[in-house]
Amino acid sequence: MSYxxxxxxxEAPVSERQPRQLIVTLYGLYARDDDGWxxxxxxxxxxxxxxxxxxxxxxxxxxxxxxxxxxxERRAGAGYVLSPTAREILTDGDTRIFGRRRATAADGWVxxxxxxxxxxxxxxxxxxxxxxxxxxxxVAPGVWVAPGHLADELADVLRRLGLDTxxxxxxxxxxxxxxxxxxxxxxxxxxxxxxxRFLHRHGxxxxxxARRRRPDPAAAYADFVRLVTDWRxxxxxxxxxxxxxxxxRWNGVRAADLFTELEGRxxxxxxxxxxxxxxxxxx
Length: 283
Fold this sequence. Notes:
Blueprint: H1 19-30, E1 37-39, H2 40-48, H3 54-66, E2 70-72, E3 79-82, H4 84-99, E4 109-114, H5 121-133, E5 137-140, E6 143-147, H6 151-161, E7 167-172, H7 188-211, H8 217-231, H9 234-237, H10 251-279
Antiparallel strand pairs: 1-3, 2-3, 4-6, 4-7, 5-6
């Protein structure tokens, strides 16, 4: 199954799921079956299955178009197709969202050192935003760090955005000292809280499906799209730090297990129902 990554550098918390975030998830999950295109009518039906009305759908589409993520394109009818930029970002997200990569000491670290002239402050802001989006932690001004397995993904993003000329990348290992604590490079308390909200929201969904005795594609579709929408930001905030650097019984592991279990339980039924909404024909 393919998806589907995050297309924004800064996302709202899971308690503030917005129509445009749901639309991004829908495009990632299902539009690439149709070359990245949905008709407006299909989008309205898909979002109605998530209890979002047509006015909110059209408003969200307009915002995504203004941000350069969707392009208007008429095929069988009026519709919107993923922009080249959105396609690249969603492709990047496929592995991050579903890969569950956890770093080990053998991965080492990638260190980012950059210097951007004062006259190019906008580029500096873009660079910092992208580093944060990819889960890099701040060691010092102009110095960011992440597990080594993120080096290739970072290099691709920098090259795509034309930021690579401002940056030097180094690989290495961390040599702990009495004054250094890697926990200060990431806000693990905030990340813990985000995982806890995810568990609180979707734990009851797992319990509900455990009690079901018959298929319910419409419910599977709604639960799955909301699950992926709430989850897809978390693997970007969490760079997959080695477990020995994280607090004991790190709740990110439980959250990932929950996501994987529900994804396996819901995705096939959800896809079946989504296709009926896209075509407008009963299965």
